[in-house]
Design a protein that fits this description.
The structure holds 2 protein chains of 2 kinds.
Chain A lengths: L2 H12 L1 H38 L5 E9 L1 H8 L4 E6 L1 E5 L6 E7 L9 E5 L7 E5 H7 L6 E3 L10 E9 L19 E8 L8 E8 L10 H53 L6 H23 L4 E5 L6 H15 L2 H23 L1 H10 L3 H38 L14 H27 L3 H5 L11 H4 L1 H6 L2 H12 L1 H39 L4 E5 L5 H10 L3 E16 L2 E11 L2 H4 L20 E5 H7 L6 E6 L4 E10 L6 E3 L2 H8 L7 E6 L4 H14 L2 E6 H13 L2 H29 L1 H9 L4 H38 L12 H27 L3 H6 L3
Parallel strand pairs in A: 4-9, 6-8, 14-18, 15-17
Antiparallel strand pairs in A: 1-10, 1-11, 2-10, 3-4, 5-8, 6-9, 7-8, 12-19, 12-20, 13-14, 13-16, 13-19, 15-18, 16-17
Helix pairs in contact in A: 1-2, 1-10, 2-7, 2-8, 2-10, 2-11, 2-23, 5-6, 7-25, 8-11, 8-16, 8-23, 10-11, 15-25, 16-22, 16-23, 16-25, 16-26, 17-21, 23-26, 25-26
Chain B lengths: L3 E12 L2 E13 L4 E5 L6 H8 L7 E6 L2 E2 L5 H11 E4 L11 H9 L8 H7 L15 H14 L4 E5 L7 H16 L4 E6 L10 E6 L2 E7 L12
Parallel strand pairs in B: 3-8, 3-9, 6-7, 7-8
Antiparallel strand pairs in B: 1-2, 1-4, 4-5, 9-10
Helix pairs in contact in B: 3-5, 4-5, 5-6
Classes of the chains: A alpha+beta, B alpha/beta.
């Protein structure tokens, strides 16, 4: 080994602390950058692999008249399609009348395979497999008897529970969809041997495309490909629909023909006998009417109607994609900022290292070593630290972070994860890490090497001290104590360190604040919508205009009932500026004054209350933003029945989730030439248990007065859950940001001490007490920390706002909210870090060798 | 009793495997208000003894009695207090705080003792009344050393310790500084200890202690010290 190389290795060994510090900073930077960047794709891949393994259908088709083998063949005429018919219906349990989504189990079926968690799949006629959630939430156990309600119309009412399973059709533990029986909410699914369902034909057609399986189920490529397939399927099923209807009609006609012929014959006989006035003839006529009615009904039932469903319509599927998109959105901002700070600090550290080695560089130069040979040492040192940091950070980040997040994703079924290294992201991190290390070394070494050896061996001429601006304000300057003057002058002497420390502290504060901000803001969307804007707890959809009294009577019997108001609702599509939004809720209150107690209509800018006027509508803010329209602009409105109208916007209201249009009934009538139907009740309730909620909903449904009841509590819970999915990642952010700020502060203080060791030794020799020596240098840190924290508040808010903007969906606004706890945590952490660093510095300064420092001429 | 009394003082350093003995059984005394020169070649251990006398370091063994108090067994805190109130240092390389002006450098020292002298007055005494608001980088070496001297004097110490005070200065400026030290001793009755390898300086001292190879080789009293102006080298 050459002496120069030996010297390099010994350098590393001697300055272990600094070498490790650089590695650590780069490690943290790459860890969070690579880790968070990898988490979004990893979440998508995990779900994608799980559902692919279980062969989840791409498209599911429900028919009013069931499916036969021919339907499968029709579906398979589309390229790549494999179709399977399945039996499916909703049923109620015996006692609690819980809604169960019941599937027929057929061992030969390939699609939507169950992911068995315990027990075995049904082998005998009396065996049932239940949803894993039935075990978790409703405490069913293996070997127990599961009872269905009598009207479930199954072969038996009692089955033995032999297994628990997850299904790729239900990835979200909290959501099983809705049904038109019981209280309307499906609680879990179950699989029974197919024949047990007592269905004459299959009710479900599962279609899977072999040529779609290479695409990630959340990718745009998959979505557009599946849409093309659905189009192709719809084309062939349009023909099939007619065939099926005709075929069924023929069967019905054939069924009725003998009876009809009999009747006609009997009628003809009586007519021939001129007995048209006899009672027998009357009976015949009555029978004929009856028969015709029955036939008509049977024919009506042959009308085939399809319901299409792709993966994104499965419960929880879309939300999962959105949550991983949201993490990806965060990944574009948060880690980049984090990495930037890490790079800056590394840069400072390397710069300092090379500067400390000035005289050594001079010596080598004097000995006749070339620039390249000398520079190589520092480049290798920096590069080594950078590479080690990048490798460790990438591996830990890429492997651990997505796993941790997935493991903490308790809201979803356990997903199989196979995490792949994201080479693209790792390369970006590596480039930046090397820029920060080797790049810094290159710049500084190059600068130092241009000086002659003699100049290098002489001490660097001290930075010329300058009067600072503050001194010019004499009255203020004079008031400061001597020590403060010294501190302030020092602060401004080392400007680069001043900025570095402020950036470090501000960055840490901002990142911690952002962590809290993301969480708070997403939760605030639901909280504010359901507490500030909506002041009701339930929405009851009435069966018809006459059923309101009945429904209100049922409500009044409920203990928790307070008030209700009636209104007409409709769904429509709105258009303006060439953009459109479908599924917008139209609310037309019966009593506008009363309605104001249920929904707060306030101007988005001024916060002033808005009134429903006769000539226009109020539109919610997000819809207005998407369409790019303002008060006074015209808005094109299309109802689901195709009726169109154009109306002026008279106000834009504050709203956080969903799109709403509020208008009075007079306006509606003017626009669509008909009275709106008062089909909805908004109900104010006292706080309820979930049992009370379910019971009330079921009573309303059973009475026939309502077709459905939804609770704001449930919707808010969904929003809260959405915020909770980000908890793990936010916790990781806060933790790592804390570590980063600590390392930054520690590192900068170390540089500060080493740069000013002579100065510190001098004042120590002068007889400053240890406390005074520490304060002499730490006073600067305290000032910088305080400034950094304040700057961090600002940056934190900006960063949060930007991330929220990125993460917002078409339906939701996340109002920028950072709870005081966020500010408190960030501030306390920073102060604690400053205190720890202060303590460590204190200990270190107690042991500095003042004699050694003062002896040398540097 | 003498003002400074060093009795059988040893200082040993452990340098890896080997033990280095910097002071090997040193014993000498110095009188109050006198100028004492410790003379010896570099590496003789004279800086070590000065550091011990100044409370920057403690001996491994022996007694160091200053004004009747043995500082050899002082704790770190006691040593700091001793340096703070009783000692003024002048180093070869000035060690001024680069970020403070001349006046502020002196004030820095003055701010920590109660009976400190006025910074401006002291600076005027060393002939720098016109340089009060300059930063060290704007001063020549001789001027910087005079600021360092002013800083030591401003604390009004019992003992003025100087480690090669002219080592980095040219002949003329060196002489100026020595002149100031001399007057501090003769006119203001300060006890002054100067460490040097320059044998010519022995003539200006009341007492010369020759140190070589970690031991005291000779102690010479000089009843008629010469003025620095009369010495040439």
């Amino acid at each position: 080994m050459k002496p120069l190389t030996k010297n390099m290795w010994r350098n590393i060994a001697q300055s272990k602390g600094r070498f490790i510090a650089i590695i650590l900073i780069i490690l943290l930077g790459t860890l969070i950058f690579v880790g968070v960047k990898a988490t979004g794709p990893a979440l998508n891949t995990a779900l994608d692999q799980t559902v692919k393994k279980a062969k989840l259908s791409d498209v599911q088709l429900l028919s009013t008249t069931g499916f036969t083998k021919e339907d499968s063949q029709v579906a398979e005429s589309v390229t790549g399609a494999t179709a399977e018919t399945a039996k499916f219906k909703y049923a109620l349990t015996a006692k609690s009348k819980t809604v169960v989504a019941l599937y027929g189990y057929d061992a030969t079926q390939q699609q939507n395979q169950l992911i068995l968690r315990s027990g075995h799949l049904p082998k005998h006629a009396n065996e049932i497999v239940l949803d894993q959630q039935a075990k978790q939430k409703y405490h069913y156990r293996l070997g127990q008897t599961f009872k269905f309600a009598k009207d479930a119309a199954l072969k038996q009412n009692r089955y033995k529970i032999v297994g628990f399973a997850d299904s790729p059709q239900y990835i979200d533990n909290e959501s099983r969809g809705s049904a038109n029986i019981g209280d309307g909410t499906v609680r879990f699914f179950a699989y029974l041997p197919e024949k047990q369902l007592n269905l004459p034909t299959a009710t479900l057609l599962n279609i899977r495309f072999s040529n779609l399986q290479t695409k990630n189920t959340y990718s745009k490529a998959y979505l557009s490909a599946v849409n093309r397939k659905v189009k192709a399927l719809k084309k062939v099923f349009k023909v099939r629909q007619k065939q099926r209807t005709t075929a069924l009609q023929n069967t019905v006609t054939q069924q009725f023909t003998p009876q009809q012929m009999q009747l006609t014959a009997a009628k003809a006989q009586l007519t021939a006998n001129q007995q048209t006035n006899s009672t027998a003839y009357q009976t015949l006529l009555a029978q004929e009417t009856q028969l015709n009615a029955a036939k008509k009904q049977a024919l009506a039932a042959t009308k085939t109607h399809y319901t299409w469903q792709t993966r994104s319509e499965l419960p929880g599927f879309e939300a999962y994609g959105e949550s991983s998109d949201r993490i990806a959105a965060i990944a574009n901002v948060f880690p980049v900022f984090f990495f930037l700070i890490a790079a800056l600090i590394t840069f400072t550290t390397i710069t300092r290292m090379v500067e400390e080695n000035r005289s050594q560089i001079g010596t080598f130069k004097a000995l006749g070593y070339g620039k390249g040979a000398i520079a190589k040492n520092y480049l290798v040192y920096a590069g080594l630290a950078g590479i080690i940091g990048t490798i460790l950070g990438s591996i830990i980040g890429n492997e651990a972070l997505p796993r941790i997040v997935l493991a903490l994703y308790k809201a979803y079924i356990p997903l199989s994860h196979n995490i792949t290294l994201q080479w693209g992201i790792i390369s970006i991190a590596a480039v930046f890490a090397l820029l920060a290390t080797v790049g810094a070394a290159l710049i500084v070494v190059n600068k130092e090497l241009t000086a002659g050896p003699a100049a290098l061996m002489r001490p660097r001429s001290p930075k010329s001290a300058k009067r600072i601006l503050l001194e010019r304000i004499t009255p203020l300057w004079r008031r400061l104590s001597f020590n403060r003057k010294v501190s302030y002058r020092n602060l401004f002497r080392f400007k680069s360190r001043l900025f570095m420390t402020i950036i470090g502290i501000a960055g840490g504060t901002a990142l911690i604040l952002t962590g809290f901000g993301i969480q708070n803001s997403i939760a605030a969307s639901g909280t504010r919508q359901y507490h500030e804007i909506f002041n009701y707890q339930a929405v009851v959809r009435l069966k018809n205009t006459q059923s309101d009294t009945k429904a209100i009577n049922i409500l009044k019997q409920a203990e928790t009932y307070q008030h209700q108001t009636q209104l007409a609702t409709a769904i429509g599509k709105i258009q303006a500026n060439g953009k459109h939004i479908s599924d917008v809720n139209l609310y037309m209150p019966k009593d506008t004054k009363q309605f104001q107690k249920y929904t707060r209509l306030q101007d988005v800018k001024t916060g002033q209350a808005l009134k429903l006027k006769n000539n226009g509508v109020l539109l919610t803010q997000k819809a207005a933003t998407i369409l790019g329209i303002q008060v006074g602009d015209p808005l094109k409105l299309t109802l689901t029945n195709g009726q169109k109208a154009t109306v002026k916007i008279t106000g834009i209201t504050t709203n956080f989730t969903g799109h709403f249009i509020y208008l009075n009934q007079v306006t509606y009538q003017k626009l669509f030439q008909k009275k709106p139907v008062n089909n909805t009740l908004l109900v104010q309730l006292k706080s309820q248990t979930s049992q009370q909620r379910d019971q009330l909903a079921q009573e309303l449904l059973d009475s026939g007065a309502a077709i459905g009841t939804s609770y704001t509590h449930t919707q808010q819970a969904t929003m809260t859950k959405m915020a909770a999915t980000l908890d793990p990642i936010v916790a990781i952010f806060i933790l790592l940001s804390g570590i980063l700020s600590f390392v930054v502060l520690y590192n900068l203080t170390n540089i500060n001490v080493s740069e000013r060791i002579r100065e510190l030794s001098t004042i120590k020799v002068l007889g400053f007490y240890d406390r005074e020596v520490t304060l002499y240098i730490v006073r600067e840190n305290i000032v910088l920390t305080l400034v950094g924290i304040l700057v961090g508040y600002g940056i934190g808010n900006l960063l949060t706002a930007y991330i929220l903007h990125q993460a917002a969906t078409n339906l939701i606004i996340f109002p920028l909210t950072i709870a005081p706890i966020g500010y408190i945590t960030a501030t306390v952490l920073m102060l604690v870090f400053t205190a720890i660093v202060m303590y460590v510095t204190h200990k270190k300064l107690q042991h500095i060798d003042m004699i050694e420092a003062l002896k040398s001429n540097e | 009793m003498a003002y400074i009394e060093v009795k059988h003082e040893y200082k040993r350093y452990q340098m890896g495997e080997t033990e280095i003995i910097a002071n090997n059984d040193l014993s000498f005394t110095a009188e109050k208000g006198q100028l004492t020169v410790i003379l010896g070649p570099s590496g003789a251990g004279k800086s070590t003894v000065l550091n011990i006398l100044g409370g920057m370091d403690s001996p491994s063994e022996g007694e160091v009695i200053i004004d009747g108090v043995d500082i050899a067994k002082f704790s770190q805190r006691q040593l700091t207090e001793f340096r703070r109130h009783d000692i003024g240092f002048v180093f070869q390389f000035y060690n001024l705080i680069p970020n403070l002006t001349t006046k502020e450098n002196v004030e820095l020292a003055a701010s920590i003792v109660e009976d400190a002298l006025d910074a401006t007055t002291v600076l005027e005494q060393v002939g720098l009344g016109h340089r009060l608001n300059n930063f060290p980088s704007q001063l020549s070496g001789g001027e910087q050393q005079r600021v360092a001297l002013a800083r030591a004097l401003a604390k009004n110490p019992k003992l003025l310790l100087c480690d090669e005070p002219t080592g980095a200065l040219d002949y003329e400026t060196g002489k100026q500084v020595l002149k100031l030290l001399e007057s501090a001793c003769r006119e203001n009755q300060k006890t002054v200890l100067i460490i040097t390898h320059n044998a010519a300086l022995a003539k200006m001292a009341d007492r010369v202690i020759r140190i070589n190879d970690a031991q005291v080789r000779a102690i010479e009293d000089n009843p008629t010290p010469l003025s620095i102006d009369a010495i040439e080298w």
